[in-house]
Amino acid sequence: MLRLRENGRSTWMWLLLGIIVAMLGVRYVYADNIDTSSTTSSITTSTTANSSSASSSPIVGATSSAIAWPTEFAQWTQGEKRGVFSSNPYGYMVDSNNLISESKDGNNIYLKFNLIAFGSWDKSQTKFYILSKTNDQYSGKDLSSDNVTINKVTSYSRSALWEVKVNIPEDSGDEFQLCMYDNSSTGFHETNGVADDSTYKYMLISPVIGWHQISVTRTNVSREYYVGESSNLTFSSPAVQGDSIITVNNNFFKNASTVVVGVQTVDSNVLKTSYTIYSDAEAIENQIEGLLPLNNDDYGLRATMTYNLPSAPQKTEFFYGGLRNIVLDDTNLSKTTVNTKDYLYGKYVDTIISDIGSNLTYTWYYATSDNESSLKEVGKDFSDTKNSTGILGSDWMSFPENSSFLKYVATQNSEDKKVYLMMKIRFGGDLKALTNPILVQIQTPTLKVPDKIDFGTIPAKDIYNGGSFESLTKNDDNISVSIPIVSKNAWQVSASTEETGNNSIAKLNGQLNIFGKNLTTTPVEVASVDETGKTVKLPLNAKVTFKGYHNPLAAGTSFTEDINWNLSPKTTVSASE
């Protein structure tokens, strides 16, 4: 009896252990849905074992034409890796190690992503759908399994990490969700962490993915101006596979920038991909040409940044550097003061400080076109310049009246040489940021006149009897006037004649007429110009008039007259009672 009892205890103990193992096995089966006793139903046919659940799903056992598509996007299904021996919830993986990305091969565009699913998911018959939205209208379609490739990345004890590559149709709307349905024993169940509601059971649903309509948010690109060390760009789209993620159409800036994928998140159910663009100031600190503003109105270098997303490339126009050209009129140079604050984009300093930090210092440099790479400190060569170095945000460089630097610029410009200016920003001695280089121009109003007005050979009888004659060169008889864009005055052109001895036209009782005005030795205004920033060409309409001459003339005698021209600011005189 004693032995029998011991055997009895052993029997009961083994029985109890068997029950425990069986119970654990049941928990294991429910956690991963390996219910070998149930009937497996393919999602491509009507279901049997799960018919009651399937009837509440709008897509089970139906063709796409019969699907009652949602009127709005569904909440996405998020996967999670809790551990090798843990029950990992099924779903899409979105983090720094699991990016949803996009690539192009020929005419095909592929979406690649990772997800958590059953360890033998490749044996299942999952059905794929695209739910798209265009102009607030939703539509859906089946996606053939021929468009889908899956590969196991990592096996866990109860699930696996899968890489999925899907050929997305071109006509997938402005944005879409990729939906996967699988109610088989190896599919997506509530016990796998898949949401259990009356509409979307057995489904893994992607975040909302931008396709043909992408939103873009930027930092340090305020009003399309880029300054600082770095900038963050966030797109409502997948990441771009490959090396050419973001390109800039300016080679010099492109060579000084690095693009790094920041983070990928799901914000309010929408997939967001962020990139950080880092600028290497040292790579372009001595570069002038290629970084200058294209015109005098631009605060910086105009450039285009392209996010090379295969489905919808995104172009962002921006200006790099924040500094515009300094253009002055030399007529009032002795009374002109210049503050560089007036030529810097308004939010430049605030953006720099926000990006890099406070306690930044600056130094201004200049160079000339005959040695562009040799930048010199402004303050060391032109001591009357104020605050050529200082604290960024507190001090501003300025040029006083009769500035030695501006006089230097005027001299260089008169010799057809260019003068450039640039500010470098440092923190603790380390170069952190730059403005773009700019041109400093001292412009002078110019007047170009014809070398000769030719009236040809006039018969003596016409000089004796009198008459009026047009110039033979009338098509070329023009004056050209260029007024600086910064000029605040209207300008006038005056002319007078200078008699040249006995062979002057005046000696023949003749008179020159241009612009409808008779010329004498007293200057007279013949034209007025108030257009600035461009060259104005004016035809002379030159004539010579003879009033009759009674002295003998030798055949072949040439008669000439000099015209004195003058371009000057026009003075407006007004009076009031």
Task: List descriptors.
577 residues; Immunoglobulin-like; seven-stranded mixed β-sheet; 8 helices; 39 strands; disordered N terminus; plasmid
Describe the protein in words:
This protein is mostly beta strands and 577 residues long. It has 4 domains: 51-210, Immunoglobulin-like (Sandwich), CATH 2.60.40; 216-321, Immunoglobulin-like; 326-443, Immunoglobulin-like (Sandwich); 446-569, Sandwich (Immunoglobulin-like), CATH 2.60.40. The chain is built from 8 helices and 39 strands. Strands 21, 23, 24, 25, 27, 28 and 29 form a 7-stranded mixed beta sheet that branches. Strands 1, 2, 3, 6, 7 and 15 form a 6-stranded mixed beta sheet that branches. The chain is elongated. It starts with a helix and ends in an 8-residue tail after the last strand. 33% of the residues are buried. The model is unreliable at 1-65 (pLDDT under 50).
What's the SSE blueprint?
Blueprint lengths: L1 H31 L18 H4 L36 E3 L7 E5 L2 E10 L9 E8 L2 E7 L4 E8 L4 E9 L6 E7 L21 E3 L3 E2 L5 E3 L2 E2 L2 E2 L3 E6 L3 E2 L5 E3 L2 H5 L1 E11 L2 E10 L1 H4 L15 E8 L6 E8 L4 E4 L8 E2 L8 H9 L4 E8 L2 E7 H4 L7 E3 L6 E2 L4 H11 L4 E9 L2 E5 L3 E6 L2 E3 L11 H6 L1 E4 L7 E5 L8 E8 L11 E5 L2 E2 L5 E6 L5 E5 L3 E4 L15 E8 L8
Parallel strand pairs: 2-15, 13-20, 21-29
Antiparallel strand pairs: 1-3, 2-3, 3-7, 4-5, 4-8, 6-7, 8-9, 8-10, 11-14, 12-13, 14-18, 16-19, 17-18, 19-20, 22-26, 23-24, 23-25, 23-27, 27-28, 27-29, 30-32, 31-38, 32-37, 33-36, 33-39, 34-35, 34-38
Overall pLDDT confidence: 82
User: Which outline best applies?
Assistant: elongated
Name the CATH class of the largest domain: Mainly Beta
- Count of all domains: 4
Can you summarize the main beta sheet? 7 strands, mixed
> Which structural class is indicated by helix and strand composition?
mainly beta
Question: How many helix segments?
Answer: 8
Low-confidence stretches: 1-65
What is the rounded Rg?
A: 41 Å
Intertermini distance: 140 Å
Beta-strand content bin = 35-45%
Question: Which CATH-level-2 architecture of the largest domain?
Answer: Sandwich
Stated plainly, the CATH topology of the largest domain is called Immunoglobulin-like
Helix fraction bin: 10-25%
Number of strands: 39
